[in-house]
Amino acid sequence: MMAIMNAFFDRMRELLGDDIDRYLETVDQEPYRGIRVNTLKMTAEELLPLLPFAGERTPFCEDGYYVSAEKLGKHPLHHAGAFYVQEPSAMSAVTALDVKPGDKVLDMCAAPGGKSTQIAARLGGTGLLWANEIVRPRAHILLSNIERMGVKNAVVSNMESDRLSAMLAGFFDKVLVDAPCSGEGMFRKDKDAIFEWSPEHSRACAERQKAILDVSAAAVAPNGYMVYSTCTFSRDENEGVVEDFLGRHPEFELVDTGCRFGEPSSFGEGMELCRRIFPYHGGEGHFVAKFRKNGGKPYAGGSYTYREPSKDERKAIEAFVADILRNPGFRHYHVIDDRILNLPDPELLPDMSGMNILRAGMKLGDFKKGRIEPHHNLATALTPDQFKRRLILRCTDELAGRYISGEEVEIDRWIKGWSVVTVDGITLGLGKASDGRLKNKYPKGLRTLPWKDLQI
Questions:
Q1: Is the bond into 112 cis (omega within 30 degrees of 0)?
Q2: From CA 144, how far away is CA 51, in angstroms rounded?
Q3: Cβ neighbours, 10 Å, residue 412
Q4: Phi and psi at residue 186, in whole multiples of 5°?
Q5: Rounded to an integer, what distance in angstroms lies between the CA atom of residue 93 and that of residue 176?
Q6: pLDDT per position as a tens digit, 423-433
Q7: How far apart, in Å, are the Cα atoms of 397 and each of 52, 128, 392, 423?
Q8: Annotated catalytic residue within 61, 109, 205, 231
Q9: Is 231 a catalytic residue?
Q10: 301, exposed or middle or buried, with CB in 10 Å at 0-12, 13-18, 19+?
Q11: Integer-rounded Cα radius of gyration of the chain
């Protein structure tokens, strides 16, 4: 083990030169922790007073903040999607991508969803987010986070990157490739990970990264942008991959990220346009490069053809919606098997036939034995004032912890039927009210201990 550590630090000395002492001073320090405010749900001005453990803004994202607490995934406002727990420097790649409202954006290696939901917040409910993950269990974690954060204009797929890019060639304005890497920048967070490190593993990662970047390039529209990022320090996986890509893709040029956090790379001609982040910059470790595509053909495929609900299905859906909601604003109902979806703008959707799609848009509910059972996504994607019946709580309320842990809770006796539970002005989940009790419909896989029982 000592031999592995010595080999790693020898490479860091070679990489950093005179800055090696600055890096070594950080090795035994606590890792940085951060959250990103989900502006689809709340503003920072609304959220931060509710989080006493939140500190200064990070330099990597205007909505990112350092925090001093752990186990934040169990906080009621995390359950409600008000914030995403995210290592501060991991926010840098989407900042470099410079997403604008209306963009069509692909996150090629998207799980667990931190960068995808950051993209969604930048889109602000406009345009299209396509989040892809090749590993199926991780793709379902990605979908869960997309749901929790209230994203309504996303497609979540579980596909190999080469197949996806071939089917959507030239479709996306912006593409993010946050590639799997050796994770050298995260060794402070996972101190045992260094013992799995080797130069050979790093070089193997670089070969895989080259392949992913190659195929992802096809999905970029003419005059579009692609950002490549890693959480490693390795030159092989960073500048080496960038140089290799540019050598084989003359239609792309390396451009300035527009970011001033971290420091410019000093490894290779033109590489100063890339940004490197070390722990002494306020984040664990990241590398970001940005490309512009100056050629290629635009998307030539078809648009998505979806099945309109039958007359009876539409009547049942509209009655269901009218019972639970006021002014929901749904426009594009879509029924697949027994699942009821509200699609993103169909004019933005490509032909998705033959693709492995886990979800397009938001899920409203399921047809079950002549009735419709609402889905958790119905609560997470909407605002409290869109629901007719509400249980209004604060994150410090005992009832909020009891609800999240799966208990039935008390509710006003006059409330009958499907109701939404809200916490500090945003939606948390659903329940069915009867006789002064709210039958808990919070998904079992998301339930945790009450917040009051946690030590932070």
A1: yes
A2: 23
A3: 13
A4: -110, 10
A5: 8
A6: 999 999 999 99
A7: 16, 36, 10, 9
A8: 231
A9: yes
A10: middle
A11: 23
